[in-house]
Amino acid sequence: MAQLNELELQNLRHMIGGHDTLANKLDSYAQSCTCPQLKQMLQNDAQDARNTKQQLMGFLS
Which residues contact 29 (CB under 8 A, 6 or more apart)? Predict the structure, then answer.
């Protein structure tokens, strides 16, 4: 794999942090949600954000 330059590394870290924040917020929203369908959708979206975060972290190795 090619080496990342400083700007690419900073952008990657920013995207990873953003997906982590998004997953946490969606989990929080899902916990307070009373509609089962909306709760499931929020949980699915949180999991998607965690999966994307893991994929992005793969570029760091």
Answer: 42
Domain ranges (residues) in the chain: 16-60
| Both structure tokens of 23 | 């997953």
3-state secondary structure the chain: CCCCCHHHHHHHHHHHHHHHHHHHHHHHHHHHCCCHHHHHHHHHHHHHHHHHHHHHHHHHC
Query: How does pLDDT run across 7-24, given as a tens digit for each residue?
Result: 999 999 999 999 999 999
In terms of pTM, does the model score above 0.85? yes
